[in-house]
Design a protein that fits this description.
Length: 327
């Protein structure tokens, strides 16, 4: 039945809900087949004949699974085609799976917009605090590595080993933003101490002393935070929507542990030592001869305030030899 035929029958017969099962004697002009077809539309058409209701169903299983989410665009395409055929002015696909699909799409869109802004802002703050253009590059890269490593470990743990159909769609967004903020907080703490020690010690010794001073703080904070997320996953995972809470809690706990014990303890200090003075470029500490312990560096024999240098105490021989010249 075309939209034009339906409108003509509605004008002739009126509301299909009020029609009797057998065509009235005065409606002989309407074929019985068309009469019955029009009367059957009573459940799907409004009394005024302007609104049509039709239903489509998912065949992808549990609406919270990845397969169901991936099936939503195809169902919406079919619904749009049916609506166009019927001449409907509006249409929609409702249910749990379409709602999850929309939220997932919004989350992915927000992630694509928020990530560049967060990276730029955090990078500028690192440049100002550390006074370097090189260090913020690998510090942000270290956070990205810990994010991808933790996300991959979550996939292996829950999908490959646990047999789940997928992870909650909000996990990548939460994990990246949280690890970026937490990781750069730890980065500022460690790198600021390394820079402070580098003014007085060779870089290897500065890194070693800075890790000794900040390691306990960073490790303790990381363990407390990871334990909090683990408890969150354990307790929250038992209730309604527990799989999603479990994914978020365990994923964030893995990310925090990886950032605390691998990135901040091993990766960043090793990169600092490998880059040497280029860590501090373009500040004065990156210049040749500015390294502590060098011939012209802070604390070196030719530096200001060093032995034999301007403002230094000199040696006893130098003092005695300078006395006759003073007389």
């Amino acid at each position: 039945m075309t939209p034009a035929q339906f409108k003509s029958l509605h004008a002739t017969l009126g509301n299909p809900r009020t029609l009797p099962p057998v065509p009235p004697s005065g409606q002989a002009s309407v074929p019985v087949a068309q009469y019955e077809a029009y009367r059957a539309t009573a459940r799907y058409v409004s009394p005024d004949g302007e609104t049509i209701q039709f239903l489509t169903g998912l065949t992808a299983g549990d609406p919270s699974t990845t397969a169901a989410l991936h099936a939503v665009p195809a169902i919406r395409t079919e619904a749009a085609a049916v609506a166009k055929t019927l001449g409907a002015t509006e249409y929609g696909v409702g249910g749990e799976a379409p709602a999850f699909y929309d939220i997932s799409s919004i989350s992915d869109s927000d992630l694509a917009r928020v990530v560049p802004v967060a990276i730029v802002v955090i990078g500028l703050l690192l440049c100002l605090v550390i006074r370097s253009l090189i260090a913020p590059l690998y510090l942000i890269a270290s956070v990205a590595l810990s994010f991808f490593a933790a996300l991959g470990l979550s996939v292996i743990l829950f999908i490959k080993i646990g047999g789940d159909s997928g992870l909650t769609f909000i996990l990548p967004f939460l994990m990246f933003i949280f690890l970026l903020a937490l990781g750069e907080d730890y980065n500022i703490l460690v790198m600021s101490r390394i820079r402070e020690e580098a003014y007085h010690l060779p870089l290897r010794e500065a890194v070693s002393r800075a890790l000794g001073a900040t390691g306990t703080t960073v490790t303790s904070a990381g363990l407390v935070l990871a334990g909090t997320f683990a408890v969150f996953a354990l307790v929250g995972g038992r209730g309604s929507g527990g799989s999603q809470i479990r994914d978020v809690g365990v994923g964030l706990a893995l990310g925090v542990l990886m950032d605390t014990f691998i990135v901040r303890t091993v990766l960043v200090p090793c990169t600092v030592i490998l880059l040497s003075r280029w860590n501090w470029w373009p500040s004065a500490l990156s210049r040749v001869g500015a390294q502590p312990g060098g011939p012209d560096g802070p604390g070196g024999p030719g530096s200001a305030g060093g032995p034999g240098g301007p403002g230094g105490e000199g040696t006893e021989q130098d003092t005695e030899s300078a006395a006759p010249r003073a007389r």
